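Hello Y.,

Per our agreement to keep a running log of every chain we model this quarter, I'm adding this entry. I've kept the format consistent with earlier entries: sequence first, then predicted structure.
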Amino acid sequence: MRIGFDAKRAFANKTGLGNYSRFVLNALSDYAPDNKYFVYAPKNNQNLFPEFPERAIHYPETFLDKKLSSLWRYSTITKQLQNDDIRIFHGLSNELPLGLHKAGIKSVVTIHDLIFERLPQLFKPVDRIIYRHKFRSACERADVIIAVSEQTKRDLNELYKVDTNKIRVVYQDCNPLFKNPVDEQEKSKIANLYGIDKPYILCVGTLEERKNQHRLVEAFAAMDKKDFKLVLIGKPTAYIKKIQQIISENKLEKEVIILQNIPTAHLPALYQKAEILAYISIYEGFGIPILEALHSGTPVLAAKGSCLEEAGGPGGLYADPYKTEDISSQLEKLITDVQLRNSLAEAGKIHTMQFSGKKIAAQLIEIYNKLS
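Predicted structure for the entry above:
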């Protein structure tokens, strides 16, 4: 089969949609190499996906398409797909170009989440309008919709009235780096590099309202901390001021460490050295940091109410993200019970097997085969 992919995010986004796109393309290349894969991107100048062969990347061809790459992705790319004899086109990041059906090209779109519908107050009105148009249009025109979690499937059905028979849930995995054990000396060296000299609770994710780090700090402040530290890693936004205020009010300057711009190569060590990953985001489409933790042998505390219980399964405990006392109580259990942490870590390792690249590639190929 000749299968095309909207791969803009694979070459432009370091996290999120970029990780998903790279994962899918790597999984298919490794475990289903008999097909011909064509990836389409406006440019490739950030060195985010060096292992992918340059010869397989297709760029805008005309002067106008190069200058108006957004229009190319939304519409004029279809002519290029026809010329390349693409039989199936997969939009990896919530959108599809116009005209695929008329061009005789079957289509698949991955919808990651509808957070902008569930938490509209966190998005600019103009952004919500654009997202709603793109997502609804893609769902209406796609032959198959892939949802990255059962939660996203429910949201598509409830909010956009998409027929569930049109939706397939296909999970994803995290960067393979997190599956490689780091030796104890290296873990300690990297932890010391960032001033982490005690057992710690780790939280990884952009410092923004939805990720809910301020309640995690409040919960940490309320605990008997047992000589633990709390380490927050993530890109800061204006929300960091709220976190810093709570740190200051509770005199936690020596107990809470905020880090940013951590090299990806250091993250596996920081995950593996941590005693617990706390990820109490109010709403997510999937929750990759949870998988990163489970592959690292680190138990998780995650939030109830979206998809995080799917991602963590038996590898974690779960708390109401709006109730600080619940978060604090669950953290206390994990901090004080080493046997519980070990049993959760073991269960988490087994749980991650369902997210393997081999399994997910097979699920995707089954979808493509039924369309061809």
